[in-house]
Amino acid sequence: MKYEINFTINKEMISLAVIPNKTLLEMIREDLDLTGAKEGCGAGECGACTVLVDGKPVNACLMLAVEADGKEIITVEGLATETELDELQQAFIDHAALQCGYCTPGMIMSGKALLMENPTPTVEEVVDAISGNLCRCTGYKKIVEAIMHVSENNANK
Amino acid sequence: MKDFKYFKPSSLEEASRLLLQYGEAASILNGGTDLIVRMHEGLSHPEAVIDIKGIGGLNEITFDKETGLTIGACVTMKEMEKHPMLLEKYRVLAEACHSVGSCQVRNRATMVGNITNASPLADTATPLLALDAFVQVYASEEGIREISIHDFFVYVRKTCLKAGDIVTGVRIPNYDENVFGHYQKHARRDAVDLSTVCASVVKVGGKIRIALGSVAPTPVRLWQTEAFLEGKSLNPEVIEAAAKIAVGEVNPITDIRATKEYRQEIVGVLVKRGLEEIAK
Ligand SMILES: Cc1cc2nc3c(=O)[nH]c(=O)nc-3n(C[C@H](O)[C@H](O)[C@H](O)COP(=O)(O)OP(=O)(O)OC[C@H]3O[C@@H](n4cnc5c(N)ncnc54)[C@H](O)[C@@H]3O)c2cc1C
Ligand code: FES
Ligand code: FES
């Protein structure tokens, strides 16, 4: 049986019929062709699938697609405008905070969620916010630096 | 994940009726951080998944002096860890919530799901045991009843809940002074790991209370150790002796996270540290 759901993703309204045994991550990647969010572990451990649901970061692999009904979802694809990257995306590039890039969409969404809630986080708060995101190649130092760059910019505004 | 029927009832009556209709084949879905992992791994395959997040009134944290603090079944760990009332009066519980998983997990995971899942290492279980909490349960015939947290856990992954029961919230009595003492989690790494041993060592109403997790089939209160401490002042000899009694009072096993002997050692360390903190 399929279930009718309505939600917004990156500000676009979507109506879709989904099977119940599909995760939010599978729906986003396979039905909506938004392949930024990745599946690393499928079990909540790695954070590669992180998206914002009603402004909060969650593991899209641990949420059913049907649960998205009525929600507002933002994926990494929703951050940039037509012509400009989000400042956090730009900071990741400027600080070389990625290598293979597999963890990057998740890292950016966790960082973004923190900055939306607290525009000027400390290093400790950044480390806490990305503790559910694993990176196996860059190392966390540059990632923390990139997020802190935006934090410091906000403090100087 | 196998196919199933998904329901999102808007009342307790309707949810309970569905639970009774499907019996063993039904699972309640709350934050899903245990259930969806189990379904994904093929450990659970319910025919009916009953999402309780559409039921009104389960999302609140309320406090009054008579009844104490009530936390609704669908309140997330993230909401709890930053709630001003918890931080001020029941800090040990806020700390336990913060120690669970990652931000992403805590934005979905609930305390009620944590205790109902009934893992011996459930991080929020020991503060609730130490604070003499009550679990509020809805059943269609009886309405809402309260079960002492001390009767709630039965065995590994087993609670005293019956078919059709829905936990609506948890109530913690009001204590005149703020609960003193910290939550301690000993795990293999600092972030996003399960407890090897966890402990709530607190002082409430002039009395020391100690509860430990991952040292027996259920989280446990250390009644003997507490009885030993009654009326004693916390000097180094008393603390040392209490830590020894605590080690004898638990019954850990060897598993992938640690050996029995290592856990026993850590029990002594955590109880000692907790008491030293209170003695300061
Ligand atoms: C990556 C990761 C890390 C984790 N780290 C930790 C950790 O550090 N410490 C820890 O303790 N846990 C940890 N967990 C486990 C999990 O997050 C918690 O147990 C969580 O609190 C479960 O709550 P939930 O709302 O997600 O429950 P769900 O998965 O929705 O439900 C759990 C169980 O409880 C039942 N249930 C839920 N609500 C009710 C209700 N109202 N009435 C009756 N039955 C109900 C469900 O049917 C199910 O059997 C982790 C999980 C993941 C995926
Ligand atoms: S894929 Fe979701 S946390 Fe790893
Ligand atoms: S850049 Fe490769 S996993 Fe992080």
Care to describe what's here?
The complex is a heterodimer of chains A (157) and B (280). The mean pLDDT of chain A is 97. Chain A is globular, with a radius of gyration of 16 Å. Chain A is built from five helices and five strands, in the order ββαβββαααα. Chain A has a five-stranded mixed beta sheet, with helices on one face. Chain A folds into two domains: 3-76, Ubiquitin-like (UB roll); 87-155, Orthogonal Bundle (DNA polymerase, domain 1). Chain A starts with a strand and ends with a helix. Chain A is of the alpha+beta class and 157 residues long. Chain B is an alpha+beta fold. Chain B folds into three domains: 5-51, Uridine Diphospho-n-acetylenolpyruvylglucosamine Reductase, domain 2 (2-Layer Sandwich); 61-172, Uridine Diphospho-n-acetylenolpyruvylglucosamine Reductase, domain 3 (2-Layer Sandwich); 180-279, Enolase-like, domain 1, CATH 3.30.390.50. Chain B is built from twelve helices and 14 strands. In chain B, the strands form four sheets. In chain B, strands 4-5-10-6-7 form a five-stranded antiparallel beta sheet. In chain B, strands 11-12-13-14 form a four-stranded antiparallel beta sheet. In chain B, strands 1-3-2 form a three-stranded parallel beta sheet, covered by helices on one side. In chain B, a hairpin with a 2-residue loop joins β8 and β9 (158-159). In chain B, α11 runs antiparallel to α12 (260-279). Classes of the chains: A alpha+beta (157), B alpha+beta (280). Chains A and B meet through β4 of A and α2 and α6 of B. Bound molecules: flavin-adenine dinucleotide and FE2/S2 (inorganic) cluster (2 copies).
Please mark out the parts of chain A with pLDDT under 50 across 5 or more consecutive residues, or reply none.
Answer: none
Distance between the termini of chain B: 52 Å
The CATH class designation of the largest domain in chain B is Alpha Beta
Ligand roster = flavin-adenine dinucleotide, FE2/S2 (inorganic) cluster
Order of strands, widest sheet of chain A: 2-1-5-3-4
**CATH level 4 superfamily of the largest domain in chain A:** Beta-grasp domain
Round the Cα radius of gyration of chain A to an integer and report it: 16 Å
